[in-house]
Structures
1.
Amino acid sequence: MAENKFNYCIENIRMSPIVMISEEVRIKGVEFKEKTGKSIIPFQRGEIDFATPEYIRNAAKKAIDGGFTKYPKSGGEKRFKEAVINKLKRYNKVEGLDEDNVVATYGGQEALELTFQLFHGKKVAGFAPAWSCVLENFVPYADVDFIEVPLEKDFSVDFDRLEEVLKEVALFYLNTPQNPTGKLFSKDEVTKIAQLCLKHDVFLLSDEAYERIVFDGKSHFSPLSLEYDNIISAFTLSKTYSMTGWRLGYLVTRNKEIARLMRLGNYTQTAGVTTFLQYAAAEALDNAEEDEKAVGAMVAEFSKRRDALYEGFKQIPGINFDKPDGAFYLFPNFSEHIPAGLTGVERNTYIYKKLLEEGVAAVYGSCFGSHFVDNVRFSFSGVTIEQINEGVERMKKIFK
Amino acid sequence: MAENKFNYCIENIRMSPIVMISEEVRIKGVEFKEKTGKSIIPFQRGEIDFATPEYIRNAAKKAIDGGFTKYPKSGGEKRFKEAVINKLKRYNKVEGLDEDNVVATYGGQEALELTFQLFHGKKVAGFAPAWSCVLENFVPYADVDFIEVPLEKDFSVDFDRLEEVLKEVALFYLNTPQNPTGKLFSKDEVTKIAQLCLKHDVFLLSDEAYERIVFDGKSHFSPLSLEYDNIISAFTLSKTYSMTGWRLGYLVTRNKEIARLMRLGNYTQTAGVTTFLQYAAAEALDNAEEDEKAVGAMVAEFSKRRDALYEGFKQIPGINFDKPDGAFYLFPNFSEHIPAGLTGVERNTYIYKKLLEEGVAAVYGSCFGSHFVDNVRFSFSGVTIEQINEGVERMKKIFK
């Protein structure tokens, strides 16, 4: 057997198709502008068009000048971990944790990547559709065998199907609220999933990146509050505080052996998270008053955008789906607008191309796994109400 | 065969013995203070007691308010990469690179870790003594078989021995100036090492963390300037600008395939380096005037400390070594002060314990591999001249 020149796990990492879509949108955008004088509506973006709240920027600047520029403590600064524990109590109703349950990470990304690495080479499952980064990055890098458990067409869970798969795997990946569907898993669903994992000796990796972006008074339920030992939760400040470029997150688990291993992994990879940024993160999480103000304003705006886009889709024949309760995505199914007989890449990109031609950018469903390839993801994280309305008008002309 | 519950590569990562030493020094420090009213002299510290220069702190604050808080570009911001390329030209005399040769990383740490991962499971070699983090963290995490190539007693290179080992390995790790010896490898040595690597189809991982901490007008020679395709250099801002807690570094290689894989690895692990910090790093590297001022002052102080400590050791019988040209460590051999017949851990920690009892903290040689176990590392990165002199006085009482 020929030996690989390099580690095949790195060689197998794929560039996100969303990055390729962004590049195509950039190029097509120039052409579209020349032809029509108008801009493409960027529903493909996952970036948030809010600034990081001032109180957090000020905390970072203060920490820089305060001399918090020395090596970080292994696993995270005391101040940061305390803020995380307080936040988990206040917002997630999670009790009984101490500093050894928390690991500071570079975004939710590093928390997820380290957890996948912990299960290197094993069988892992998650619901489909699934966040593209899981499929393109974590799965190949950790060399796991990933089983997609498809949600129903209305994004509900087939628990029998789930249980069959849980008999075979070491880890289950759950993302709630979910990218790309916007589905907020209910307390009952999360509890049942966690219990099934426990029953079959499966660890549950709970990706709670969008926990604060929930609408209509609904609330996110973290499986951490169940007090099971098999739950590993990944959190990030990226979406909550519009801090995508700060790269701040944390991993929380009641299983201290796992937390210890994740500290070692984090130290080995990066020697820890930038010290002064942990102080800014602590302020972000701890200052309940400023937090409510900033997050409240953002979620109110996202809620309006969701409503505008959702109402827009109601005017398009053949598109029917329930309004999602979280995150900043809609994931409608376009089956009725795809010509019969189309298959493969041609089918998968048919709607995407048609939309892009008319100045509407979105992400095709096959970026999120092998089910739901007739769906398309629309993000409203970086578009105004005016852009949404204009996008809907353009779509109404395509799909009559 | 029983299946591992978790990834054994993470389970095999060891906590740095230097962390354990720090903890012991902290505890003993309290006792020592109670007994003598004095403090332990912290020669064990790798931390730098300078503040990050103001021009860099200002650049970070400006970038935070400038809105550079969105997702970083894959592999690094254009502004950062340009600054790296300029710095490589200006300081390292390295020409002919473009942005695709550079990857932004979380400190030198992530550049080294990713490179070790690229050679996962293969044979790797490096000189002994070697930085403890290589042995305790990178080697187990990347599951490489690491061969120590011992330097001679005077830290010179046995090239025949090196060449024999290079016939067997895929990667060679070089650290110049070197931790723990302070050895600055000469241009001739670096060139010969790189050529031997090239001859035997071995990649050279060049850890240049201490490149700017060189004394007496000597200068660091980067193998990158050789224009070979087999060289991967890891740089960090940590030591140069007293930015250990900022976690900023970069990987540079003429091999664009490797750079591409490292970008994918970096993206998968962390989604890239904090955007606004890359702008601060660019300013650190680009502002030649402020750089010279800040680094010049720091190196002048380190030079004085090195001289004071070196002159101190001259007064201790049985300690003989050449004054090193770089980094901030001395690594004297204490063989003559170790009782005959002592072996194993008892021998390895004999001098360390004796020193600590008398209020001198340092790191024993076995932290740096299996050769040089009678040596002890003294860092002068975090001690004043007064502390050095006091430490020398204490040692003179022990070793008569």
2.
Amino acid sequence: MKQAIVARADLNMGEGKLAAQVAHAALMAYEDADRQSQSAWKGSGQKKVVLQADGEAALFKLADKAEREGLPHAIVRDAGHTELEPGTVSALAIGPASEGAIDRVTGDLSLY
Amino acid sequence: MKQAIVARADLNMGEGKLAAQVAHAALMAYEDADRQSQSAWKGSGQKKVVLQADGEAALFKLADKAEREGLPHAIVRDAGHTELEPGTVSALAIGPASEGAIDRVTGDLSLY
């Protein structure tokens, strides 16, 4: 089991900002998962990988793929209080789900 | 309502690694909170701040303070698969709780 969080590298977020967006996405996708996946993932150490993509279109494309695969997922829009414009799409989390299922969606992406 | 996540700046984690540790801590502390705090926080936009501290001792001291204030919190130890030694304490999340209660514990810390 794992969860993948894909953040936009093209926004050049500061590292604290990036971490907050990733945490936000992780929590939202976790809540979108069924109880069984939540438990299995927590029991196996809550594995997370943080990946990168360039641009909003890439995140929406991945979200669409996750949707078609029936995977829990969530897109984050920043409230825009600090670095980003309000409503900026900053990150997407997919899972927790099986490693194979996650890799089918995010397999081509590089680590952030 | 907010959640503060305090990460160790002295470990010089890469930004993807840092984001994963922060997400891990955020989710664990969220699960430590009661349902009412969880709902209130989510309803108000899930505010998160990422702060920095130097060293394990600083995190334990803050966790102790959070414990005495009765605030939900969680410390993350890294599994050590990649950048860090196994068992390294990397981050602490406190809340969701009221902004005032969080600030009483983390008020002196700088943004990461």
